[in-house]
Amino acid sequence: MIVGTAGHIDHGKTSLVRALTGVDTDRLKEEKARGITIDLGFAYLPVDGGPALGFVDVPGHERFVHTMVAGASGIDFALLVVAADDGVMPQTLEHLAIVDLFGTQRGLVALTKADLVPPERLAAVANDIREACRGTVLAGADIVPVSSATGAGIDALRARLIAEAGVLGERREDGRFRMAADRVFTLPGIGVVVTGTVLSGSVRLKDPVTISPSGIAARVRSIHAQNRQVDIGRAGDRCALNLTGEGVTKDAIQRGDMIVDPALHAPADRIDARMTLLPSESKAIAAWFPARLHHGATEVGVRVVPLEGEQLRPGQAADVQLVLDRPIAAAAFDRFVLRDVSARRTIGGGHFIDLRAPERQRRKPERVAERAALSHHDPRAAFAALLDTPPYARDIDAFARDRALSAEARDALLPPMAHMFVTGDERIVLGDDAWRHFVTAVVERLVAFHAAHPDLPGLAREKLRVSVVPRLPAATLAMALQHKDLVGAVVRDGAFVRLASHSVQMGAARESLWAAIEPLLGGPARFRPPRVRDIAGELRRPEDEVRQLLRFVGRLGSVVEVAHDHYFLRATMHEMVGIALDVSAETQDGFFGAPAFRDRLDCGRKVAIQILEFFERQGVMLKRDTLRRVQPRYDDLYAPAPP
Question: Which CATH number fits domain 268-354: 2.40.30.10, 3.40.50.1000, 3.30.360.10, 3.40.50.12780?
Answer without folding.
Answer: 2.40.30.10
